[in-house]
Specification:
Length: 349
Amino acid sequence: MARRDVVVVGASAGGVEALRALVANLPADLPATVLVVLHTPAAARSALAAILDRSGPLPASAAVEDDPLTPGRVLVAPPDRHLIVADGYVTLSRGPRENGHRPAVDVLFRSAARALGPRVVAVVLSGTLDDGTAGMVAVHARGGITLVQDPDEATFEGMPVSAIEGDSPAAVLPVRDIAARLVELVGETVPDEPASQASDLMHQEVGMAELEAIVTSSADPPGKASGYACPDCTGVLWELTEGGLTRYRCRVGHAWSPQSLAAQQAVAVEGALWMALRALEEKASLATRMAEGAVDRGHRISSLTFEEHAAEAAAAARILRDLIERVGTLVPHVESDADLRREPSQPLP
């Protein structure tokens, strides 16, 4: 019989504090590998592995290509690389972003579910929006266990709430209790073969994360055409339904949950409004200069025409400024990487 021996953990905004509390309450002889994804900016140098290494008895390090799944270790996804689980080891990939992130929690969870089935325990901690929910569904489908941080304790409740609503996890607990539950779960015997085989969709999506050309060049993209465009590459997004969740993915693999897609669309709308505002301001400025030049040349009628153009452009610009102010309410909180550069003064209780 196989044993439950891999813990995958996903977090985002507010996640450093929760991760520190989690590893602080895990024993040095934990018979499982702990794999961690925290959303980080692509160009940043992450200190998370060093922070976690100092926070508890388990040694923590940034994952490298072909790192083995060794019990009693914490492996952290490096910036701008997906952390992907294979059979007995991990790989790193610059595959397409999911929900705007690389590394993405869903990629880690889904790949672990495909490779290891019931040997996996998945944990979602503090974060905004909903990365991790689809991955939890995949873990659950393959016989793994899913745990979620209590939203009332989380610094940001978005990811925990989404995971609860989308997956019906085995337990919703404070971080300290999650650690205690993990100690109970890991090392237990599980069936050698999962109750259900990995779906074609799961194989396809993991293949996309691994940049497998045979997947992205397939004549049959996943799902059905949605009518929406991918914010990353402007390709057609295909609508996927899995475990009651609706998601979107383009041909080359960029993936979006409804929440993340809406958030990115709001950002795109704001960008388009700024471009339009810039064009109107330039038009108003140019028309004003042309009116002044017409006056200097004694062309009064032309001057009045240019002044009207300038006034119309300025009036339209005022409307756009108001729209920009309003669209700001559609753009979600932007996660800060400040918590990666300094440690919280106190861990969670």
